[in-house]
Amino acid sequence: MKDPAQSKRPRYVEIADELRARIDSGAYAATGKLPSERDLTIEFDAARNTVRDALGILRGEDLIESRGGSGVYLRTFERIPRDAVERLSRKHWGAGRAVWDSDLQGRDRQENVTVEKVDAPDEVAGTLGVRGEQVWRRSRVYHSEKRPIQQSTAWYPADLVEGTAITKRNTGPGGVYARLDEIGHGPARYREELKVRLPLSAESKTLGITLSTPVILIVRTAYDSSDRPVEVNQMMLDADSYRLIYTFPS
């Protein structure tokens, strides 16, 4: 006889429990893919929103992930720990290590980089104090384990970085911050502003995610020792790919 307490459980929770049990038993291990939402609605005789709620539970437990236009798969990608304070420490880039080394901890990384001199967008120009002037823009899409994880666009005052490796695709050991330091404008402090929203259509395609997968928007401004803004970096992270960590002294 069915436990009365069990019968009061929401249908989507029951479906999530059944799918979780199947995942634990290895039922989907061969293909790594779950049945489509349509197939699950038929199997469980449930509304599509009920099935979506069930899948949402499993997604929140990091058991599954949705891939834009492809379906729902068992999750194999381990979230990237992004320690906002540690990763920007001078001890890393000052020693010739990439900021990303702190995040990926030995995992692979690929990036598509475009570098060009452009007119500064109004908001960026205001922050950098270069209204009416041009800036160097570095646009990148980062991948790890063949998965798009972040898109970023950074701007630098042209009068500051002209002729440096910052205007090249390969900025060399330690990256942009090491090159800024070499010309006497290394970052002395940073400010990051963060918000979360759903992606636009083009953004979801860039990151290979569904329109219902949140993205984390981070805008970082770097300042040199005279408190001059030397970089504005706008980043868009796939929220399903990251764990955000903040470590700082009391």
UniProtKB/TrEMBL annotation:
CDD domains: WHTH_GntR. One of its GO terms (molecular function) is DNA binding. Signal peptide: none annotated. Coiled coil: none annotated. GO terms for biological process: negative regulation of DNA-templated transcription. Keywords: DNA-binding, Transcription, Transcription regulation. The keyword Cell division does not apply. Residues 9-77 form the HTH gntR-type domain. It comes from the Bacteria. The keyword Transcription regulation applies. This is GntR family transcriptional regulator. It comes from Streptomyces nigrescens.
